[in-house]
């Protein structure tokens, strides 16, 4: 048994090989890529000597669970443990209190951590190629949505500084009609000259309803009196607004393209039907849940393990007579976002979910904590369905609810 600590960077890896007694067998800085992986195999080979390959077990600790390097380690037959950087930092403090830090020292900490505490670390379970594909397109889709929100807020702040009438005229700044009209008239003077026909044409191209009334309201808002800014300042703001409008138009286009790719990739995955059978999960949310959980069956041994990773389960802190229960604040943002959205949608899609939510509210929980508890319950149901390969069944999932059993 040998243990490897791998402190990775963008272009190199600091590696230490350690035996079961904690003695350092080798240490080196390896380049990223095929050459570095070949040198790592050679280092491990020299460390184990003449022992038969079948009798050697190699455990690797590294602060990531994805990427071609990690996949190459798994393909080589090594047991790979993805160590949370916070765990590594706490282990470094245990081994030395001076505060000294180096890449080689971090590799030693990781090797010692996987040697002494591998039973408490989560092994990296390789997902299928289909799940990896879903993760790539799904994460980019969500990233572009976040970026669109960020750029929309920047546009809102710009308009508030020199053209507040636009904020009154356009409810959705990132909508197609709003962007088209702002591109034509990014300053108050040009906006006041927009005719009803121009505004109506933009609304029709965006497939809006009640076009005449909305066009009249937009024109009235754009022509309302407002505090002005110097001409030079207004012109500079208009240039900035045109740039953001063009950027938002491109983001809208790419979000739509990626939405189709997400649905296509997710639809080809064998677990798609089971996930889509869950209440509150459609193609987009279902794809996000699959992408962040992965599809390796051995990754989550129990429903509790899946709930802990999802951060929907609470944390209990007990000391003496004091006991507190708190929500988990260290979590996968993408996953918890999808699960909370699922829980909210399940309130109307599942009578059992609604009854469970109402039960939490009756106990005094606010809306968000009650949603989180519902999401925790839904994660457990999803785990059972994936483990047994069965679709969601409303009566089976909520058989413990008195309102359902009575019905």
Automatic annotation (TrEMBL):
Pfam families: DEDD_Tnp_IS110 (PF01548), Transposase_20 (PF02371). Residues 4-164 form the Transposase IS110-like N-terminal domain. Residues 273-357 form the Transposase IS116/IS110/IS902 C-terminal domain. It comes from the Bacteria. InterPro entries: Transp_IS110-like_N, Transpos_IS110, Transposase_20. NCBIfam families: transpos_IS110. This is IS110 family transposase.
């Amino acid at each position: 048994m040998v243990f490897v600590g791998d402190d990775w960077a963008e272009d190199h890896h600091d590696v230490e090989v350690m035996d079961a007694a904690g003695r350092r067998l080798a240490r080196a800085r390896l380049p990223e890529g095929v050459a570095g992986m070949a040198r790592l195999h050679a280092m491990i080979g020299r460390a184990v000597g003449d022992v038969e390959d079948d009798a050697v077990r190699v455990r690797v600790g590294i602060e990531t669970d994805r990427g071609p390097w990690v996949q190459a380690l798994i393909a080589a037959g090594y047991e790979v443990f993805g160590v949370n950087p916070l765990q590594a930092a706490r282990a470094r403090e245990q081994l030395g209190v001076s505060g000294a830090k180096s890449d080689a020292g971090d590799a030693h900490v990781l090797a010692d951590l996987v040697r002494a505490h591998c039973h408490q670390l989560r092994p990296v379970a390789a997902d299928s190629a289909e799940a990896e594909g879903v993760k790539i397109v799904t994460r980019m889709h969500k990233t572009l949505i976040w970026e669109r929100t960020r750029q929309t807020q920047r546009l809102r702040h710009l308009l508030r500084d020199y053209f507040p009438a636009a904020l009154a005229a356009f409810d959705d700044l990132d909508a197609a009609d709003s962007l088209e009209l702002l591109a034509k008239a990014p300053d108050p003077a040009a906006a006041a000259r927009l005719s009803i026909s121009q505004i109506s044409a933009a609304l029709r191209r965006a497939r809006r309803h009640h076009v005449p009334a909305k066009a009249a309201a937009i024109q009235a808002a754009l022509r309302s009196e407002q505090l002005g800014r110097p001409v030079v300042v207004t012109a500079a703001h208009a240039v900035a607004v045109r740039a953001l409008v063009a950027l938002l138009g491109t983001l809208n286009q790419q979000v739509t393209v990626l939405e189709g790719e997400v649905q296509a990739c997710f639809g080809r995955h064998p677990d798609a039907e089971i996930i889509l059978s869950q209440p509150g999960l459609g193609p987009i949310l279902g794809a996000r849940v699959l992408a962040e959980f992965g599809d390796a069956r051995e990754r989550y041994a129990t429903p509790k393990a899946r709930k802990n990773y999802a951060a929907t389960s609470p944390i209990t802190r007990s000391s003496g007579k004091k006991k507190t229960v708190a929500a988990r604040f260290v979590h996968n943002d993408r996953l918890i976002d999808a699960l909370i959205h699922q829980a909210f949608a399940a309130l109307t899609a599942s009578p059992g979910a609604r009854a469970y939510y109402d039960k939490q509210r009756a106990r005094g929980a606010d809306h968000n904590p009650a949603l989180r508890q519902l999401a925790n319950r839904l994660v457990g149901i999803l785990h059972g369905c994936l483990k047994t390969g069965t679709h969601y069944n409303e009566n089976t999932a909520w058989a413990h609810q008195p309102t359902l059993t009575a019905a």
